[in-house]
Amino acid sequence: MPLIPNLIKKKRDGEALSDEEIAAFVQAVTHGTIQDSQIGAMLMAIWQRGMAVAETDALTREMMSSGEVMSWPKEWAGLVVDKHSTGGVGDKVSLVLAPALAACGCKVPMISGRSLAHTGGTLDKLESIPGFNIQQSTHQILEILGSVGCCIVGQTELLVPADRVLYAVRDATSTVDSLPLITASIISKKGAESLSALILDVKFGRGALYKNLHDARELAQSLVRAGNGLGIRTGAVLSFMDTTIGRCVGNSLEVIESLEALKGNGPEDLMELVSTLGAALLLMTGLVPELSEGRRRVSEAVTSGAALTRFRAMMEAQGVAAETAQTLCSPHADYHRVLRKSIYQTELKTPGDGLVLDVDGLALAQVLHKLGSGRSRAGQPINHSVGAELLVSLGQRVRRGIPWLRLHYEDPAPSPDQMDRLHNALVLGPDYNSQSQQAHTLVKELLLPN
């Protein structure tokens, strides 16, 4: 067994680690036979020196194998799929996509996360529904997939335990933004799901982890290569993330918008992402011969009501009372009979006449985070009712004094500085701006395996 200090020194000096050395490091992390300071030193060495493709692949494999690897019935072969997003503002895609894919014949064991910095977490959104239980055992996941076709759950204790340790230290040592560490973290968890196909929504822009297309493409290519290296048919979408996805930001509000989307009333940008990501998965599983047919199938699953039926069944299978699920899924639902509504709402008015050229999604998300919609540390409680509704669209001509944003808040109330930041998030202009038109089309590139 190689000595950990020797491995740290080797990577610090820019040398490549062997498969055996990477296995020794991951095993020490998993079994707790390594000091936190040594983990931090190794992560910083990787952050500074990087990793070759072979090293990243070995790290991904070893992390995947550090805990339980799920297995599925033989009759599901080729049909088990999942999606991962690098995080955005108002990103509620999973809530619509998972049941739509189940309605198309896929099995979707969607293992999701919580809010991170300004980006919302899928699990936090679902927990705004009374009774929704995101903690399910492997056996329960198998049962739900058998009866419903999809579930959205948190990472189980037995799945990739090495990643939980490494991520906590990465966060504490400012090594989160390392390409090989990001790749290994994401793909090891997806590999442990024993997926047939995986689609990655890698975002770029003001509200994303990566601010430009070049850096996002580099991450997407790394993830796609690593996923396919594990035998998972893996593709990626590069999508624009400057403003918000849809019109709502905040946990309860995003659940409402997702339910409206499942009832056929979804905003165009949200449905573009759902149909594109879903079509890519249907193509990679062989359920459709081309992307256009995949988009049609996903859209039909939504417009027919089949996806809504699956979402209702998923809610009930994950602990939501049947009456609650029925209320939320009814055609003219009074959502706030079930979902928490904020005590206070206030509307922001447009400062003048003009065209809506931009809405700064990052500014909205960061203010909402401070008002309680997100958390600054693990385990911190959040307020599901805090959020914002965008009342105008990019490219829309507006008059002075009309409401453009409805803010939902409780305690704390927004400060004058936060209100100023929200007001400044809206950009109006006198002439039509081509960028505002482009922002309606979020998908920039699609990377699929050969």
Descriptive notes:
By secondary structure, the chain is α/β, with parallel strands linked by helices. The chain has 3 domains: 47 residues, Up-down Bundle (Transferase, Pyrimidine Nucleoside Phosphorylase, Chain A, domain 3); 262 residues, Nucleoside phosphorylase/phosphoribosyltransferase catalytic domain (Pyrimidine Nucleoside Phosphorylase, Chain A, domain 2), CATH 3.40.1030.10; 94 residues, Pyrimidine nucleoside phosphorylase-like, C-terminal domain (Aldehyde Oxidoreductase, domain 3), CATH 3.90.1170.30. Helices cover 47% and strands 14% of the residues. A 4-stranded mixed β-sheet has the order 1-4-5-13, with helices on both faces. Helix 1 runs parallel beside helix 3 and helix 5 crosses helix 12. The longest helix is centred in the middle third of the chain and has 18 residues. Keywords: Glycosyltransferase, Transferase. This is Thymidine phosphorylase. InterPro entries: Glycosyl_Trfase_fam3, Glycosyl_Trfase_fam3_N_dom, Glycosyl_Trfase_fam3_N_dom_sf, Nuc_phospho_transferase, PYNP-like_C_sf, PYNP_C, Pyrmidine_PPas_bac/euk, Thymidine/pyrmidine_PPase.
